Amino acid sequence: MIRLLLMLVFMIALIACSEKPSEEDAHHHARRGFRNVDSNPDTGLWGFLKWRWERMVKDFPDPTSYSFPMAENDPIFLRSNRTQTTLTWIGHATVLLQVRGRNVLTDPHFSKRASPVQWVGPKRVVPPGLAPQDLPAIHAVLISHDHYDSLDGPSIRMLLRREGGKETTFFVPLGLADWFRDAGAVRIVELDWWQSHAAGGLRFTAVPVHHWSKRGLIGRNRTLWAGWVVEAPNFKFFFAGDSGYKPVFQEIGRRLGPFDLAAIPIGAYEPRWFMKYHHMSPEEAVKVHRDVKAKRSVAIHWGTFMLTDEPLDEPPKRLREALKEMEIPNDEFVALKHGETIILDPEPGS
Asked: Could you tell me the maximum CA-CA distance found in the chain, to the nearest angstrom?
């Protein structure tokens, strides 16, 4: 009975980035929620169960056997920085963007597990590259969707408890405002795809990506999923969140690009028969880099939680091979160490 309960909770956590919803037409507003613009085969619950069954007979390395060297960052610099544009990869889909003196956090996740509970579920294999106590004041948080590896309740509540946390603005896709109000947030901006909101000298736009939502065993696609664009004078940033590869990225590039910097997922792609519709491979991530017209990109959504079947250290290797194949310089699309900070040129007039 206990084993059955553990498996049920584990399935809730894993299914949150695995199950595939069906889409019936091109409009993303459905009768009771949302759907993707581009349709794909519906593998659904049976596909999920098939994947889990196949996974039981595979030999996977212990997640603790991986060794990812962490970068030595400078929290004092990050807390005091007001002029330079920087990006720090904290882990998985969590990055700290600093632009024009504003600090923006994407999909904040500092917990030990990507799960509805902290005693079972995918366990973090690398500590957060920047500890919560070392974060600067956070002015904006961008949430891509409601899955447990992207919307982590303990991390959100931690941000709200911090000094000044009530002043943080949470940018969320449609349907998630109530969740944040219940958590205690007071500044919430809920947007549909292509809607924008200006705050603190920056402009935030929710953009379509190809994914889905579900935070339990029922209620699929009741809330929207999105990528985010952050615009400042002379600087544009694209956060892809979590997505399969679809033509929508070309549209983002046409309407809002080019981008000075992009954060694009490269992990959680195997087995392809099941994952390809909602998680991109490293090769597809390079296509996204080109589609959105990014001058520079950083890899996210890899090397932090073992969510799918590929080795945790495989995505950056395949990324380098894809860059070579497409004749793109390695420094144009990089896989950072956990905690690594890149500093862009100071902004004009800063």
From this structure: 64
